[in-house]
Amino acid sequence: MHLTNVKGKTWVLDGPQLIGLYQVNDTECVILDPGSGKLQEALDQAIRDAGWTPVGVICTHMHYDHHEGTKYFREKYGALSCLPQLEADIVRSEQSLKNHLFNFTMGLIRTYPRLQALVGPVDRVVEFGETEIDFCGATFGIVRTPGHSPDHICVITPDNVCFAGDTLMTEDVLETAMVPFVFDMVDDLASKERMKTLPCDAFIFCHKGLIYGSAADLAQKNIDRIHQQLKAITVLVTRPMTYSDFYAAVVTAMELPVGHPIRAQHLERYIRPYLEYLVDTGAIELIDINGAPAVQPAGYGHE
Q1: Which CATH number among 3.20.20.190, 3.60.15.10, 2.40.70.10, 3.40.190.10 corresponds to the domain 2-227?
Q2: Cβ contacts of residue 303 below 8 Å, gap of 6+?
């Protein structure tokens, strides 16, 4: 992993994704989104090569590719963990994680290592209404940007650098993002609009880029991409179809890679928020077919 200074004491490690670091003092740092478990040893080595010890971990949200590595640094260094309120609630227990991952079995929650790594105590919860936190000897600004996840946040370092997690994707990532993951489409679009006016000197996006100055143009491109995908999905609903038929149509039309039942479950969670948004906005109608949840084109069969 290559360590690059962004501004002042704010750094970024460039690997499969971007991981933020804030240098608290000569020997200690706070990690921003340590990433997945497979990155932890390389990340640990890069931090040690810099001469620092991680004393805290702040995560923008609880997804495994951002929060999974927290457990490693907590157990090895005693690093304190920090998550926003709803994200912390999700990882408090196996039961709360199951409640969030509604289509995963309880047995899978209890045995799949990547999911087990998410569950654990949170030392500092960013409560609703907090716009800054004191954590491990530094003060970080907090901007709530829900939508990608229930309580996603952006973290503003003392150098006025925004660590934006997954709020936006950079242009090269957008080109290959077939179905950008969204938990709540209304919140997500509003958060992307908010990014247009955020007065930070630089923005770090985990997937994957660093920009200086305004994020307005990139935010609009993210918004446009979401609307393009919503239109592409809407036209696939040409007749009454069950949810399963709907998922299959999207996977086939967009050539989404499956190959494993767990991957299929992930894809169901990726696609469902688009379906729900189209139902809520009246673009398609919610019906049932022989008792199974189903959708049809708006006005289908109406005289």
Answers
A1: 3.60.15.10
A2: none
